[in-house]
Write a structure and sequence with these properties.
Blueprint (H helix, E strand, L loop, with lengths): L12 H37 L1 H12 L13 H10 L5 E7 L2 E6 L7 E9 L2 E6 L3 H5 L4
Antiparallel strand pairs: 1-2, 2-3, 3-4
Helix pairs in contact: 2-3
Protein name: Type IV pilus assembly protein PilA
Pfam families: N_methyl, Pilin
Family: Belongs to the N-Me-Phe pilin family.
Length: about 140
């Protein structure tokens, strides 16, 4: 009697279908996460756009002006910084009113806003991010 061992020559159809199903499930999970990551990366331009305006408001405040005078209409250096901040692919507008800076993103980042609020502490300013719609969307911290 001869012992014959049958060698497996390839994958069965069911094995291939299981692999395709697993890849499909992984893709369904990964694509929405990827979209969130790209929006967050794009929104970092909006967050970065306020740094020049923030510096201009701090200089305005340190030169003896009240925070109410440190806005787009009341101070030339703040107005110039706002004008330069409005340049960007994902930045729609940047405004400064009474020292509070509001940056709005473009449609690519769902028009979300980032707000920086100054607080006077020991003849200086501290900044906090509050009230912006980007926080609820998970685009900024």
């Amino acid at each position: 009697m001869k012992n014959t061992i049958k060698k497996q020559q390839g994958f069965t159809l069911i094995e291939l279908m299981i692999v395709v199903a697993i890849i499909g499930i992984l893709a369904a999970i990964a694509l929405p996460a990827y979209n969130t990551y790209t929006k967050k990366a794009r929104f970092s331009e909006v967050v970065q756009s306020v740094t020049g305006v923030k510096s201009a408001v701090e200089v305005c405040y340190q030169t003896g002006n009240a925070l109410a005078d440190c806005d787009t209409a009341g101070n030339g250096s703040v107005s110039t910084a706002v004008g330069m901040a409005n340049v960007g692919t994902y930045v729609s507008t940047v405004t400064a009113v009474d020292g509070t800076i509001t940056a709005t993103g473009s449609a690519e980042v769902d028009n979300k806003t980032f707000i920086l609020v100054p607080t006077e502490v020991n003849s200086g300013l501290t900044w906090s991010s509050s009230g912006g719609t980007c926080i609820a969307a998970g685009l900024c911290d």
